[in-house]
């Protein structure tokens, strides 16, 4: 009992407890064998009568029952459940000490995590080729993983992983053509910093800059701008290290069919070792942020898509507020717009601070069992808007009325933050996404650049109505962006029509707490939210999820439906054929890839 209690206190949720007990106490009651031996050596006693035997049995079991009840009562009153048990912070994946050779690897939001004993980081192309060749000969998995930022952990694999963080050099710069050849492990910000002295930069950016180049192109990541394609379209040639055919170079001119298939290849057709990227001239952008509403959006939407190099909308659920962010090169003859903001940054966020302090006091008063933490006592004046939003949501993340208050505070923050700012494109096009989160982002066609069909706004209107009708505690923002099409066949924005445009819509639920129970409840509510959008919107608008955000269904029937749905949009047979040729032993795959694209069984 004592050993069991100590283990449960140290590892309260470990499923291996019985095994631990068996290992540490191979003979839990050594006296038991001794007792049976001594009894067997005694002469047998006379057989009792049937009536006395039954009475004895009854008394024995009544005694056992009384003993059990007494033990239970003693345990309950001696070791009561702590009053703050519901608010205990989670220590994710720390239920038992890990062996020294076991590495823990998780994505940024800690929604996906694996333990592996092999995490390889080659320093040269020769090293990478050698380890891929060796793994293939041994038929050992070696899944390529980048910076681990994908919300669905698409690069993770508990068997073995290879990461190119040490292969991060700029190899060659062609000033005349503005092309740059880099090792695939270089991060976006590293690359931008490395080529700015030559006067050029990347054509577009996603919200953050920490992705490795190999990873950002393999999952079809994107920025915003209806005339600008996803980031994979900037790649004009690649060097792949494949298990089946060794190192191959592919481009628009050299094996274009494989090139357009592998450019957004999800890490399944080879380890991307080197990439040649078409860059553009480095320039400064002027960002204009202002608040609008659906009626104004409808009047100006087509014009804004056509006139702005970059544009995105941030929709605030349960409000009429739409935040519009437009970015354009600064006019050489007019210069930046002169604008004097009504509020400074401190004034813009002050009402959010006030709401946090008020809400914190309210929830503390209502829940006397909760205890203050150091984070709760932090100086609110030192917190950014997104940090304040996380703290506000953490107080009651699934209370719709509370979330609505937070959303309205965000709408007011953006109203007071209207204005202009100027900077280089890699500085301006970033976006503070907030803290840990669940996110689902879909991509769907929305007409042509010459004639948008307005389906993008219809989608949003239906989504907002769905949120209100179902009472979903949906936080802000719902982010909407646009891109031109990509020729990469596995891109969600794939199209052969160069004038096609696509809208990308992301829904979100933050994970602003370390409380394991709260995180589980938020996760369940998010997937309820996501599944409602799937059943009511996706097929109607031909929407497909971003590869870095698509999750594998647990239900077998739902998985079969997902596989069938992916077949309607993507060249699954061609992709699987290339997988079998380039990776015949399947060493680059993981469970996600195998479930998305099951290979035909060998005859």
Walk me through the structure:
Strand 17 and strand 18 form a beta hairpin. The strands form five sheets. Strands 13, 14, 15, 16, 17, 18, 19, 20 and 21 form a nine-stranded antiparallel beta sheet that branches. The chain is an alpha+beta fold. The longest helix has 29 residues, at 50-78. The model is unreliable at 1-50 and 81-96 (pLDDT under 50). 36% of the residues are buried. It is built from 18 helices and 21 strands. It starts with a helix and ends in a 7-residue tail after the last helix. It is globular.
List the helices and strands and how they pair.
Elements: H1 2-10, H2 17-24, H3 30-41, H4 50-78, E1 103-106, E2 113-116, E3 118-120, H5 125-138, E4 143-144, E5 160-162, E6 170-174, E7 179-183, H6 188-195, E8 200-201, H7 213-218, E9 235-242, E10 246-251, H8 256-262, E11 271-278, E12 280-281, E13 284-292, H9 294-307, E14 310-315, E15 322-329, H10 345-366, H11 385-395, H12 400-416, E16 419-424, H13 425-428, E17 437-448, E18 451-452, H14 455-470, E19 478-484, E20 500-510, H15 516-541, E21 544-545, H16 556-569, H17 572-582, H18 591-596
Parallel strand pairs: 3-5, 4-5
Antiparallel strand pairs: 1-2, 6-7, 7-11, 8-12, 9-10, 9-11, 13-15, 13-16, 14-15, 14-19, 17-18, 17-20, 17-21, 19-20
